[in-house]
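Final report, results section. Input specification for complex C-07:
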Amino acid sequence: MRTTVLLAVGLCLSSTAWATTVKEPIQPIAPAEVSDPAKVELGKQLFFDPRLSRSGFISCNSCHNLSMGGSDNLPTSIGDRWQEGPINSPTVLNSSLNLAQFWDGRAADLKEQAAGPIANPKEMAFTHILATDVLRSIPQYRESFKAVYKTDEITLDAVTDAIAEFEKTLVTPNSRFDLWLKGDAKAISAVELEGYQLFKSIGCVACHNGPAVGGNSFQKMGLVEPYQTKNPAEGVAGLTGKDVDRFRFKVPTLRNVELTYPYFHDGAYWTLEESVDVMARLQLGRKLSDDDIGKITAFLKTLTGEQPNFQIPILPPSTNNTPRPVPFE
Amino acid sequence: MRTTVLLAVGLCLSSTAWATTVKEPIQPIAPAEVSDPAKVELGKQLFFDPRLSRSGFISCNSCHNLSMGGSDNLPTSIGDRWQEGPINSPTVLNSSLNLAQFWDGRAADLKEQAAGPIANPKEMAFTHILATDVLRSIPQYRESFKAVYKTDEITLDAVTDAIAEFEKTLVTPNSRFDLWLKGDAKAISAVELEGYQLFKSIGCVACHNGPAVGGNSFQKMGLVEPYQTKNPAEGVAGLTGKDVDRFRFKVPTLRNVELTYPYFHDGAYWTLEESVDVMARLQLGRKLSDDDIGKITAFLKTLTGEQPNFQIPILPPSTNNTPRPVPFE
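Structure output:
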């Protein structure tokens, strides 16, 4: 017992010295810099406004719930008329750090992404024209858009720009691991540190690196061994039609991964332990011991950062001229 | 033009003097007094937690959306598997002032009410046992319940008690009308004041009175003329089986009525103007002029008070032992 404690202390001490001299493959997340608070506030209202959906029931926050790690914690999402979504909703937290948006990267950035679900018949099932008609009918929205964009028009471009600006504030700095990266040796435990060392030594960092611990490359799911799933998603091949792109997906961020269960593009795995096991086998060709899986899982839980911290938005009311939602028929 | 302005000023002056001497049938809303902040915080988390539903998608806030006047702004609500709810979701704002809960008053108080939707197969479609099983599986919830209720058990009684305690904080004081009631003659305009005088003189206050401007009696919908609706709700008769109770409903609060469209138990009317017209004809046997309807509507909009003002709750994550949601099959 005493030996273990001494060993742990030894690891902490040596790692501190080492953290200041060796460049780590993971960098701390920087806090959001808000240059236009009015735009962010407008984007926040839009993010929470279910009137951007046909039913008047589904908002961005329905599937990217900011109370729940920016995800819906479901294997695939529930859309208009309870349709089953095709793929797991990725977290919106830290999504500004992704090299592209959606699992297959088909949107270049958050602004382009935001337009997708509004008009997707399986998600919010609206049209961009009707969505902007709704906003245009509401004086408080007209004022907000005019204050931010200096024009009387409310365009889809402005709508998605404001949503993206809000989403850029949804970074989660100061996780315990970030504190450790910045030199606080006590911020993580000896076991968590061992987990991080394993995470590096067995090769997880090859894809999960950078400030978002992922999100910066596309990789084939099932590199060494094929991934078994009933989900028909083809990954990047769905866009390029190329066989080499089959099952190539954007590597998800591991930031806040403790909160963003279930895992993988099909949401088939609910526990981090199973997910670590699957990743190690399929991507790295390694069968990890339960002990090692436990350590890596402990490390992954140190990546939970400061969650969104703002007042709930109060949405401006509809008017007599606002197009009505169509929840049923 | 000058005459109108002078008249308006005259009305304001006289009304101030009068407000301090005459007892009004409507009283200001008192701000919430929070005696147990930890219980309120726990209740807020539960109110926003979709894991209290079978699907993991629907929370109390789905149909009593605190960004939208504590309602869903739909004629009737969307429940589990997109089932159509039987009746319009009443606002949760100021609901602690109601003499009973639900349109037919079948729950005595907020605590009793809170248990209903969780287990209603058309709403959250869960069971009380499963809901408490979910909470029990989450260490942070266990800690919060223990801190508030001083026991290791998590019971439905404690769950609904905490939700009710949070809901009691959802009062909306300091509407412009309340400021006027408290003596600020400039808080409402001359037209709004005329609307209030009409609201009293034609008899609306007979039912819509007290701090909540309603919520304190049951009345027959369609007293003078029958109310035409396809909605099968029978009101209190659904509980008593008595013919005299047919179409007797709890009088809804008019606080924040600008935000809680569409109106009536069937949510059939989207505008305040139509609703005022219907009420005057069916309940009071009066056909109002468009001018009078406009004035009463202007008055009703002065009843919008301070909306909920708190940080979005961050929900504690599920664990490997948490029962999984069943969004589809």
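Strands of chain A lie at 218-220, 248-250. The CA atoms of residues 94 and 171 of chain A lie 5 Å apart. This concludes the modelling results for the funded period.
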